[in-house]
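Data card: per-record layout.
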Amino acid sequence: MNFVIAGNFPFPSGAASSVRIRNMALGLQACGQQVHILATSPTVSTKDEEKAQSFNGIIYETLAQISPGSGKLIRGAARYQAVIQANQIIHHLISKHECDVLIVYDRGISRVPLLLRGLSKYPELVKILDVVEYYQTGELFGSYPQYLDYWLGERSIHGLFDGFTVITSTLMALYLQRGLRNVLTFPHVEQWGNLPKREYLKKVNAPFVFTYVGALTVRDNPESLYLIMEHLVKKGLNIQLNLIGYFERSTYGRKMAQKFQQDPLLAGRVNLLGAVSDGALLEYLQQSDGLILTRRNASSEIYAFPTRLLEYLQQARPVFAASVGDIPHYLRDTEDAILFDADDTLRAAKTIANAIDHPEQLHQIGINGYRRGSQVFAREEYAGKLLTFIEAIQKFKSRHQMIRRS
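The structure for this 406-residue chain is written out next.
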């Protein structure tokens, strides 16, 4: 089959969306499929950069190229012009029999109908909407007003698609409850190589080093992380915490970073590292005793999935994660990870402290976490499930068309 994946994401690198699309595309390619990427998210580029390029044999086109320092109006105009151009390319690819399946990564009511304009005249084309988040009305009006565009899209564009890939089982249950059909859970996936060599080394009088990676945003619940660290110190545990990420990008992130830094109880225990290179990040993760992931227990996080979890699991280090959304659906507590209560920080600290008291068992949990991740988040396996899912939709559409002709 010939796949076109189009929508509001950078490619081949950038945000979490680009990681998702990249692994989806590479998984399909590994299963023998042809993939063409149309990225409509504004991307800073030089005048000499070609729009159409190749990544590991996958053709991709960055259609919204902008100059450095471009303002919001220019970025917005470039995005919509890219959507119109993507639509034209899709029509052209269909005419050349190079587009059997279209996967759309976007939810904006102002963009998706433009992207799909005129495609209804191709009854054989399978159109899939990839959904990674769900926002209720009350969560829209914050620092990101574009969520209103997403919210309106989520409630009006579903009839334009033949099926849906959703990032969590909780989101799948919601879609089925709303009467939608042809829904497949497609979590974040990765390529998993050989298990990293991790020998157990007993530490004497050395601190237990945690590492958190993120932007200290509300959804990561950094207030919970802060209180857990305080509780652990009050329990007399010798701990250190590395904080890595782009904290300065938000007022809340800067505020929380300052709170960690200025707390006298945590003095000398928190390393505020900020953004680091990919190589440095990997080194910090591999040298840590535990990788911690706090999450807010709210609908937006219950329906979403943290991309950072897979990066943690790939290190074969113990992962400490809030038991929110699909995390306990995939990871077994005290076997593949240490799961803790997202709402009760005192109870969470007790859970974490008990785990630290058993270092050999914790070491094995890190190894088990890698093995579990390689089983439940393997990109080729989910690419295969996606192909089976699409084949079923194709058969349904074919039968439906035969009935209409008769």
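Known properties of this structure: Residues 379-405 form the longest helix (27 residues). The first strand starts at residue 2 and ends at 7.

See the next section for split statistics.
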